[in-house]
Write a structure and sequence with these properties.
alpha/beta, 2 domains, Dna Topoisomerase Vi A Subunit, Chain: A, domain 2, 5-stranded mixed beta sheet, homodimer, 197 residues, two-stranded antiparallel sheet, 45% helix, Helicase, Ruva Protein, domain 3, binds zinc ion
Chain lengths: 197, 197
């Protein structure tokens, strides 16, 4: 405890970040106070900016600072390929690999009977609309190799059958693995070796 | 990569926090963007406040939002005991244990021939001044049980010999251990069993 209300409040908020507990939040705040000129003040400003401007792309679900994200706005990426991912972190992981040049569709999760997540809770209706609207010829299902991820992939494959070539990431994605934890090379290999469903 | 400059900038700053690498910084920022109303915006405000008001106590080196910290201002804690710690995180750890009712002196590190840290690089001259100014009768050296911590304790003991009772935390502090990693009970036991040097 610092005994100071403002500093305590900051520690409590920091401790709510994923990966930081109370101890690491205290250490982070002390570090920030020591570097208040070089780090704390710029970080506060960056957070303020992002909190005011960040939003989800109305088309694909990526996060950015415009209603339609840079990838959706980029006509060079309207190549008929649509890569379906669970979360924005997966989209970012794909982008880091640099191998995919089409567009994305972020579902916002997976179907889950257990958690009561149905198709309308995800961005699945919007996915159907985009097939025609954007003349999509191939849908790459880049979902995590978990049970829920694969259930969701099969549901989408059923829904879109006959409307586009359906492929999935192939070799390289380990059983139970999540995209965001893979190295770029593995993602590249899996995308290059994708196979029809 | 998010492809968005503001969001990328925020991720880069977050990755400079201790305990967060690039991946956990990305996850933290996505979490913040999802919870921008409940978490990101209050966190930005709290950081802004602390970046504008945080300072080191001119007397003891604790951090707070006033020139003299709450502990130094509290006359109820002018009981003649002064607890010397290496860092503010150690002071906070002592305060969490709730057992110490005197005041603190934060050195700001340890003596280190290797890193070229001498007495004047730490708050050691100010410590000497406080013995008389605050009628200190006991100096508790609560330094980490590392080689540099113990070297520093011996140097301070030499400097203050005959001017106050010198004690150190006793049982409970493991060899090579750091205060900030100890549970409150261990700190309490070590303080209660302190012994003259
Ligand atoms: Zn988009
Ligand atoms: Zn103070």
């Amino acid at each position: 405890m610092s005994g100071n209300t403002d500093i305590e409040g900051l520690i409590d908020l920091m401790a709510r970040l994923p990966g930081l507990g109370p101890r690491s939040a205290r250490r982070a705040v002390l570090h920030l106070i020591r570097k208040r000129g070089q780090l704390l003040s710029p970080l506060a400003q960056a957070m303020l900016t992002v909190s005011e401007t960040a939003r989800e792309c109305l088309n694909c679900g990526n996060v950015g600072t415009t209603d339609i994200c840079d990838i959706c706005e980029n006509n060079g990426r309207a190549n008929g390929q649509l890569c379906v991912v669970e979360d924005v972190s997966d989209l970012w992981a794909m982008e880091r690999s640099g191998v995919f040049r089409g567009r994305y569709h972020v579902l916002g999760g997976t179907l889950s009977a257990l958690n009561g997540v149905g198709p309308d809770d995800l961005r699945i209706p919007q996915l159907r609309d985009r097939i025609d609207a954007e003349a999509v010829t191939e849908v790459i299902l880049a979902l995590n190799a978990t049970i829920d991820g694969q259930t969701t992939a099969h549901y989408i494959a059923d829904q879109l059958e006959g409307r586009a070539l359906l492929t999935s990431l192939a070799q390289g994605v380990p059983i139970g693995g999540e995209l965001d934890y893979l190295d770029d090379g593995t993602i590249t290999a899996a995308l290059n070796a994708r196979k029809p469903i």
